[in-house]
């Protein structure tokens, strides 16, 4: 029946009765069995249309990010089907539960997210023909030798993903085996909870566990997989029948042409990934390089503007005019008195609402860091000028030098010498603060790290690499600054 349909391994024998069962069930429920639309729909009803499709965030190998691009079996399938059937898709990577919510509230036209065709869901969604056989399996941390079966879960906690079949399965046996269930919105959080030892096990789809384990996510399986359902593409019940029909027709064409098999092979037979530390570095070198480049760019731009702000407001602060001193003091207290993270959120999410147009992430980031560092630079400049003994100003003035000349020839040269170590300090702080911009999606070094370990689960190693990169760059920059300092501030 589904000769072209693939499973990761193991007998396909269970799939046939299961799918026929589902079809029978669908008939019983009064919904036409999947595929039945194909005959009734006008061919070409989808042509030229654009459909919004919701998906999960990270559910490798079905959907995940590689160098910032959404890739995976589901992505390749839906794109190939769209091309085959002449429609366009706009993918929204929302998270599993969020994607189902979005579908129910008609914010997306369909969902492809390694979504199991279950009885419950068939009450509210219409599914395409199944395209992959799955099933739930339990996994535990690699170094956990205490849990070898469900019996060992007694009194412990297991992690699942909200709204998934894994969660439903865990809930269905938790009383029998006496364990607690905690649900997370994203796969990465669920896995991290197990690796951190807070949960002892995770219930997830076996092809996803197998792929993760092969990519070195630090887990292992100790039990057999449960027989589970197959994945299908979903639309709201009764809505977009032409899209469902096109999906089925496209899927059949891909299975016929061999492209379906190619897509599966691309992700499933890719062979065990080289899991050495060195390959982690080399494989991700382009992403690290891009991140480092953006980190340095944001640092350089921010420090440039911060220096200008610092000099202007620093002089305001030592000015005899109360208004100028007031302006500078207000500026410093606002930006020193609020967290950088809040400032970043404000400039990226808040400012666009005030000015009525979007602010791109580099602009928002540089605004944040310049204004923040500028406040500290203001204090450095003020402190530097004021630390020059006022007696020197008086002496120079009494010798007949004007205020400007005294500043230029006597006070400022000494002030710069005093300020230099503090400036270098601020350079280092600003460089490190760029990492906070990861939260607004600025693709600097820390952001790249998060993207990398969301896929390969090697959180500790990736963070160590990134920390080392920051450390090397900062050490080199401070050394350089020291040399320049010695050169010019003799
Ligand atoms: N196949 C599972 C389900 O449908 C999980 C899907 C997912 O996490 N993306 O519930």
From TrEMBL:
Task: Give the residue range of the signal peptide.
Answer: 1-38
- What is the top-level taxon of the source organism? Bacteria
Q: CDD domains from the entry?
A: PBP2_GlnP, TM_PBP2
Task: State the InterPro entries in the record.
Answer: AA_ABC_transptr_permease_3TM, ArtM/GltK/GlnP/TcyL/YhdX-like, Iontro_rcpt_C, MetI-like, MetI-like_sf, Solute-binding_3/MltF_N
Q: Does the keyword Lipid metabolism apply?
A: no
Q: What is its main location?
A: membrane
Q: Which SMART domains did the record assign? A: PBPb, PBPe
Does the keyword section mention Iron?
no
**ABC transmembrane type-1 domain ranges (all copies):** 292-478
Instruction: List membrane-spanning regions.
Output: 292-316, 328-349, 462-481
Localization recorded for this chain is: Cell membrane
PROSITE patterns under this entry?
Answer: ABC_TM1 (PS50928)
What keywords appear on the UniProt entry? Cell membrane, Membrane, Signal, Transmembrane, Transmembrane helix, Transport
Q: How does it sit in the membrane?
A: Multi-pass membrane protein
What the entry lists under NCBIfam families is as follows: HEQRo_perm_3TM
The family classification in the record reads: Belongs to the binding-protein-dependent transport system permease family.
Name of the protein described by the UniProt record: Amino acid ABC transporter substrate-binding protein/permease
């Amino acid at each position: 029946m589904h000769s072209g349909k693939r499973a990761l391994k193991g007998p396909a024998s269970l799939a046939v009765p299961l799918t026929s069962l589902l079809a029978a069930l669908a008939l019983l429920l009064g919904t036409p069995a999947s595929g039945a639309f194909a005959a009734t729909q006008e061919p070409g009803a989808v042509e030229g249309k654009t459909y919004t499709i919701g998906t999960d965030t990270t559910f490798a190998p079905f959907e995940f990010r590689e160098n910032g691009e959404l890739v995976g079996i589901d992505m390749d399938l839906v794109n190939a089907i769209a091309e085959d059937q002449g429609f366009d898709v706009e993918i929204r990577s929302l998270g599993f539960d969020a994607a189902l919510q979005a579908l129910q509230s008609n914010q997306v036209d369909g969902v492809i997210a390694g979504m199991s065709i279950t009885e419950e869901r068939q009450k509210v969604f219409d599914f395409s023909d199944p395209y992959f056989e799955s099933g739930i399996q339990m996994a535990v941390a690699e170094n956990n030798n205490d849990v070898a079966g469900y019996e060992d879960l007694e009194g412990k906690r297991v992690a699942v993903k909200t709204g998934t079949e894994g969660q439903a399965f865990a809930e269905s046996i938790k009383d029998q085996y006496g364990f607690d269930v905690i649900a997370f919105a994203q796969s990465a959080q669920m896995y991290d909870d197990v690796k951190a030892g807070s949960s002892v096990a995770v219930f997830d789809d076996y092809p996803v566990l197998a792929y993760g384990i092969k990519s070195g996510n630090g887990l292992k399986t100790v039990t057999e997989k449960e027989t589970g359902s197959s994945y299908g593409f979903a639309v709201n019940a009764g809505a977009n029948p032409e899209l469902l029909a096109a999906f089925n027709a496209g899927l059949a064409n891909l299975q016929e042409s061999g492209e379906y098999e190619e897509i599966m092979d691309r992700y499933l037979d890719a062979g065990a990934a080289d899991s050495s530390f060195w390959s982690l570095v080399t494989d991700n070198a382009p992403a690290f390089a891009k991140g480092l480049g953006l980190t340095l760019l944001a640092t350089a731009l921010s420090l440039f503007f911060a220096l200008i702000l610092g000099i202007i407001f620093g002089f305001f602060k030592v000015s005899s005019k109360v208004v100028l001193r007031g302006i500078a003091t207000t500026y410093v207290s606002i930006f020193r008195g609020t967290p950088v993270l809040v400032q970043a959120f404000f400039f990226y999410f808040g400012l666009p609402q005030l000015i009525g147009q979007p602010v791109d992430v580099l602009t928002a980031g540089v605004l944040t860091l310049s204004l923040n560092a500028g406040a500290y630079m203001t204090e450095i400049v003020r402190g530097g000028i004021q630390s020059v003994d006022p007696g020197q100003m008086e002496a120079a003035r009494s010798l007949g030098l004007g205020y400007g000349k005294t500043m230029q020839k006597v006070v400022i040269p000494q002030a710069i010498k005093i300020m230099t170590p503090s400036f270098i300090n601020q350079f280092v702080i600003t460089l490190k603060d760029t990492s906070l911009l990861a939260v607004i999606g600025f693709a600097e070094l820390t952001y790249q790290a998060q993207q990398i370990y969301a896929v390969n689960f090697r959180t500790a190693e990736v963070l160590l690499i990134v920390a080392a990169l920051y450390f090397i760059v900062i050490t080199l920059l401070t050394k350089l600054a020291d040399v320049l300092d010695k050169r010019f501030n003799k």
